[in-house]
Amino acid sequence: MSIGNIIVTDERGTRVIILRRPGKKNAITQDMYREMSRAIDTAQNNPDIRCMIITGGSGVFTAGDDIEDFLKADAARPETLSDGAKFLYSLALNVKPIIAAVDGASIGMGTVMLFHCDYVLASTAATFSAPYIHLGLVPVGAASLLMPKTMGYQRAFAMLVMGRSFTAAEAQAAGLVNTVVSPGHTEIEARKVARDICRLPADAVAASRKLLRAAPEELTRRIDQEAHLFSERLKSDDAVAAFKAFANRKKR
Q1: 245 within some domain
Q2: Would residue 119 count as lying in a domain?
Q3: Are 99 and 188 in contact (CB under 8 A)?
Q4: CATH number for the domain that contains residue 16
Q5: What's the confidence (pLDDT) of residue 79?
Q6: In this structure, is residue 200 part of a structural domain?
Q7: Higher pLDDT residue, 50 or 247?
Q8: 3-56 per-position pLDDT tens digit
Q9: Per-residue DSSP letters for the chain?
Q10: pTM
Q11: Is the per-residue pLDDT at 117 higher than 90?
Q12: What pLDDT was estimated at residue 90?
């Protein structure tokens, strides 16, 4: 099923969620967040869906938020939970294994969402960054909780506070990526992992996964805390200047 720039298919117990906006490097709009949330939420009580795959296809995972779309949405609903935040809640409350297949750039939310996934495959061409600091902003999506736990404090500092980018090999060494494969092969390999998971006892997988992961309420509490600080930072001189510079570049 194709809805806008998100394609959702169910195949042999696996729901595959594909970001498909190649002209914009899969930059995520509010509509795309809504569709991804719906795909995750509707899988929760569906016994036929044993796991999920999130991918952007060959060449790029996602450039993160579509900044122009984000600014329009932020101006339209300053007091309501954003579609991006709802998507993060869907990830935090999800009980099914999620596999990510990353081929190419994974920026901002593209990297943040990976810390909510259970198995990450990357191509040798993949890069990972969460450069919110360059916009005068703070991390989102419980990244400040999950990233140090996964990668260690120093690596998390380099990515979140210094805005450093990681290669696939660096991300694997840091514990973010399970397997590195050749470009163009991430989705194929992700489907193999999904088949392995689907062969396992579903209840035991669910129980074991729950034991391994942070409690959903801990994740949502940190998501809310970060969102509050993020909203405050949006009004800061640094953020206003960064977004003004972005708008000026668009006009050229």
Answers
A1: no
A2: yes
A3: no
A4: 3.90.226.10
A5: 47
A6: no
A7: 50
A8: 789 999 999 999 999 999 999 999 999 999 999 999 999 999 999 999 999 999
A9: -EETTEEEEEETTEEEEEE--GGGTTPBPHHHHHHHHHHHHTTTT-TT--EEEEE--SSEEE--B-HHHHHHHHHH-TTS--HHHHHHHHHHH--S-EEEEE-SEEETHHHHGGGG-SEEEEETT-EEE--GGGGT----TTHHHHHHHHH-HHHHIIIIIS---EEHHHHHHHTS-SEEE-TT-HHHHHHHHHHHHHTS-HHHHHHHHHHHSPPHHHHHHHHHHHHHHHHHHHTSHHHHHHHHHHHHHHH-
A10: 0.94
A11: yes
A12: 98
Residue 76 has pLDDT above 60, yes or no: no
Which pLDDT belongs to residue 222?
97
Domain that holds residue 102: 2-183
Q: Cα dihedral sign for 221, 222, 227, 228?
A: positive
pLDDT at residue 244 tops 70: yes
Tokens of 121: 């495959």
In a domain, residue 252? The reply is no
Domain count, the chain: 1
Q: How many C-alpha atoms does 141 have within 13 Å on its Cβ side?
A: 23
Nearest to 139 by CA among 129, 149, 154: 129
